[in-house]
Amino acid sequence: MELSAIKGIGPSRLDALRAMGIGSLRDLLYMLPVRYEDRTRPQPLRELQPGQPCMVAGVVREAPKFSAFGGLTRVTAALQCEDGRLSLAWFNQPWMMQQLPVGEPLMLYGRLAEKNGRRTLQNAAIVTEPEILPVYRAVKGIPAKSFRDIMRRALTATDDCCPETLPHALRLRHGLCELNFAIRQAHFPDSLESLKIARRRLSFEQMLMFQAALSAARGEREAGVPLSVPDGAEEAYWKTLPFPPTKAQRRVLSEIAADLRGGAAMSRLVQGDVGCGKTAIAFGAISLCHGAGRQSAMMAPTEILARQHYASARQALEPLGIRCGLLIGSMKASEKKKAHAALAAGEWDAVFGTHALISEGVTYRSLGLVITDEQHRFGVRQRSTLQDKGRAGGASPHVLVMSATPIPRTLALILYGDLDISAVDELPPGRTPVQTRLVPEARRADLYAFLRREIAAGHQAYVVCPLVEDSETLDEVRSARATWKGLTENELKGLRVGLTWGSQPPAEKEETLRAFSAGETDVLVSTTVIEVGVNVPNATVMVIENAERFGLSQLHQLRGRVGRGSAGSWCFLLADGSEKLRILTRTNDGFLVAQKDLELRGPGDLLGTRQSGEAMAGFLLEGDVRLLEEAVRCMRELRERPEYAAERAQVEAVARADWADRIGQMARN
C-alpha cells in the first residue's frame, strides 16, 4: 500500500511526511510515539505532582464560572474527588462551560500547576473511555488527532510491509514477541504490560541490527600498511620516559603495536579517565610509527590543546630524534607555507594541530598514523578526510581515536562497535583525588571566601554555568554573563575574572583561554565549553552552578579540569542534595560515574539518539542497561557459535538492507 492510498493523506500531507523522512508505509509504521498518556487509572489527589500530567476522577459540584481579561478567557470549576477537592481551569476554551455537567461523574487528564500553595489542573481533556493514548512527534500540517487516525488505518497493512526480521529460535531464546504484534502494541497498546513487551522487542532489534551493521563495517575495513615494529619497541619507548608506565598503559600500547604490525588498517578507540596517561600512549604510538619510517598526525579540537600537545611532544619525542611541527588556523600565511612544505618533504615526522591538518593544500610524504584527540568533537567526515591524506596504493593509514570521556564498556560496544576498544582503567600512583562537595545556596558566601583564599595562595578557579544568557522561562538557572557581571562587581571584585562561552568568536575565545592558561586570569566564568581540551595545572577550584541540570558524566568531565597539578583541588556543586549528585562526592572513578549515569538516564537520553528526520531514531537505544547488554551478548554469540551461523546470516542480511547507506561510512569512522 502506498502512503497516498491511506485515507487522510492528501498531497500536502504527503509532502509534510516526506519532509520528516517518511517516504513509505514502513517508515510511517516505524515512527513510534515519543510518549504515552496513561488514561486508564485515575490517581488519588495525594499522588499528584506539580508539573506532571495526571488523570483524576470526581464530580463537579457547582456550575463552572467564566471570566475574560486582557484578551484571554478563563473557565474555572472545582472537582470533588474521593480524597479531596481540586481546582480546574481552562484558558481560551470557552466551550468548556457546556462540557462540565454538575453532579455527573467526570474523568479528566491534564497537567497539574501549583502557585502560592494552590494546585490547579489546567486545560485538562475530558476522558470518555480509559485508554493509553500515543503522542507522536509533531508533523507540520497534520493535527495530532488526524495523525493518530492515519496511523490506525496504516496499521491494517502491518503484515504486508513489515515481515518478521528475527529468526524464530532467537526470539524464543530472548523472550521476544512477534514483529507485527510489537508494532501494533507500540502504537495503540492494550495495556502497559503489552506496551512494555512491544517496546522491548523493537528496542532489542534495533540494538542488535546496529551491532550487525557495525560487524559488517568491521569486515569491510581497508587494508593498512604493515609497519615494521620490532619486538620490544614498546618497552624501549617506556624506558625513555621519566616515570614508569601503569600496567594499563603497557597493555594498551602493546595492543596498538600488534595492530600496526597487522595487514588491516588499525581502528582503535583508547578511552580513559582524566589523568590516566592517554597522551603518553599516543606519543608511544607515534614513536613506533616513526621507527617504521612513517609520519604521524595528531588532531585536537582546539588550538590551546594542539599547542599543549606540541609542547609536550617536543619534550618527550624530539630527544628520540622525532622532528615535531605545529599547524593551526591562526598561524600566519608564511608560517603555514613553511609547515606545508615541511610535511610534504618529510622534514616533520609528527605534526600536531587542529582542522588545519585537513585543509586544502596540506599533503604528507608518508602518513602512517592518524590520531584524533577528544574524538567526539570531530565528525566522521573530518576524521576520514585526515585519513584520506595518507591513503595511497590501496592502503590506508592507521587510525587511533582517543576520548577522555569514560564510557561503560557495553555502551562503547554500541557506539564504536566498528572499533577495537582499549580502556586505560588505571591512574598513575600519587595523584591527589579531587574533593567534591555539595554546596546549598545558604553557603554561597562561604564558598566565595574559600575561592578568594585559593586565589590568594596563587591558584586559579573555574565557575561553570548552564546558560550563556539569562532566560525568562528558566529564571532560577544562572547564566555565564550575569554571573560574570555579578562576581566582578561584588563577591570577586578586584580579581581578574574572564568570560567564555561556546559561540564566542573563535579568536576571542582562544585569547580568553590562553590568558587563563598563562595565569593572566584568576577566575574563568564559562559554559561547558571548557569541558574538554583545557589543561591548566594551576587551577584548583571548580564551581558548578545549578549542578542538578547536568548529567553525571558531564559533571565528572568538568571536575576533571582541576586536580591536574600537585596541589589539592576541589569541586563544588551548587545545588540541593540529591542521590545523583552524591555519587560524585563518593567516587572519582570515571567509569563508575559513567555507569551510574547510564543507569539513571538510559542509553537514548545519554546519547541524544532521538534525531529529527530519522523515522527509526525514536526508539534506537531505548530501554535499560540490561537490555543493551543482552543485545550485545546476543550478537557476540551469533558471531562466535557455529550453530547460530544461519541466524547470524539472516540478521546480517536485514542489517545490510536497513543500514546499507551507512555501513561504508561506519567502516571509515
For this structure, what is the CATH class of the domain at 233-262 and 275-403?
Answer: Alpha Beta
- Helical residues, percent: 25-40%
| Global outline | globular
User: Any idea what the CATH architecture of the domain at 233-262 and 275-403 is?
Assistant: 3-Layer(aba) Sandwich
Q: DSSP strand (E) fraction?
A: 15-25%
Low-confidence stretches: 376-380, 606-621
Class from helix and strand fractions: alpha/beta
Task: State the separation between the terminal residues, measured CA to CA.
Answer: 37 Å
Spatially, the strands of the biggest sheet line up as 11-12-10-13-14-9-15
Instruction: Note the total helix count.
Output: 23
> Could you name the CATH homologous superfamily of the domain at 233-262 and 275-403?
P-loop containing nucleotide triphosphate hydrolases
Number of DSSP strand runs:
21
Radius of gyration: 29 Å
Give a short account of the largest sheet: 7 strands, parallel
Average pLDDT number: 85
CATH topology of the domain at 233-262 and 275-403: Rossmann fold
